[in-house]
Design goal:
Elements (H helix, E strand, L loop, with lengths): L7 E7 L6 H11 L4 E6 L6 H7 L3 E4 L5 H11 L4 E4 L4 E2 L4 H9 L7 E10 L3 H16 L9 E4 H7 L9 H9 L4 E12 L1 H6 L1 H16 L4 H10 L1
Parallel strand pairs: 1-2, 1-4, 2-3, 6-8
Antiparallel strand pairs: 4-7, 5-8
Length: 233
């Protein structure tokens, strides 16, 4: 008898991603149709909503905009046994569905949270080096970030408390809580992310900014203050 595949909900926060969202939706449709698609929109005015609806996604309007707020709202609407969180500017490889399916069918998989391997495009030597550093951090420190995606069982998501309604670092906030109750494991499958963030200030400067933000957060600086400083820069 063929084993039934547990249901999967893909949750994507979106804000004015009309150029990149169609590419991710195409990747998802090519991989498998056996998933629910939830897009949490923070007030797009560029056509993203129409694109999302044409894909057959369950679209919810979330106000005010904020990735943590949108992810939490999307998760509340998701009906799948498993949740897959992706950023709207991500791209999936052709093998993504097969790899996800193998995890979903593993009896032990629900005890862990899973993440993709970061790949930044267009690629440069510095970006390849950054991706290797991210892989080491994710494996040894158990700290993958949101641009690596996150796959986990609904039960584990609920136990962790889920995404908090915070203005910044919602991914690290959740991962820190997850790491106390579960292991975070690599899918050994790439997730391609758009390099626009690094285009603006370069790999080294961007990495230094992220390091300083995390250090200040650990020192007790409020996320509201960090968000104001981050977006001002």
């Amino acid at each position: 008898m063929t084993q039934a595949i547990p249901s999967l909900s893909v949750v994507i926060p979106c804000l004015n991603e009309s150029e990149r969202l169609p590419l991710l939706l195409a990747d998802l449709q090519q991989g498998t149709s056996n998933h629910e698609l939830v897009i949490a929109d923070g007030g797009s005015i560029d056509g993203s909503l129409a694109i999302a609806r044409l894909s057959g996604a369950h679209v919810i309007a979330v106000e005010p905009a904020g990735r943590g707020h949108q992810l939490a709202a999307g998760a509340r609407q998701a009906s799948g046994t498993w949740l897959l969180f992706l950023h709207a500017d991500s791209r999936l490889p052709k093998s993504w569905a097969e790899r996800i399916r193998s995890v979903l069918l593993s009896p032990q998989a629900a005890a862990s949270a899973w993440y993709f391997d970061l790949q930044i495009q267009p690629g440069t030597p510095m970006r390849h080096l950054l991706a290797k550093a991210v892989a080491l951090r994710s494996r040894w420190l158990q700290r993958p970030y949101g641009d690596q995606g996150l796959l986990l069982h609904q039960t584990l998501y609920a136990r962790s408390g889920g995404f908090a309604d915070v203005p910044l670092m919602e991914d690290l906030d959740l991962v820190e809580r997850l790491s106390k109750i579960a292991s975070l494991r690599p899918l050994h499958t790439p997730l391609i992310t758009d390099g626009r963030r690094w285009d603006r200030c370069g790999v080294l400067r961007r990495s230094l900014q992220n390091f300083k933000l995390k250090r200040r957060w650990k020192q007790g600086v409020s996320l509201e203050t960090l968000a104001r400083d981050y977006y001002a820069s």
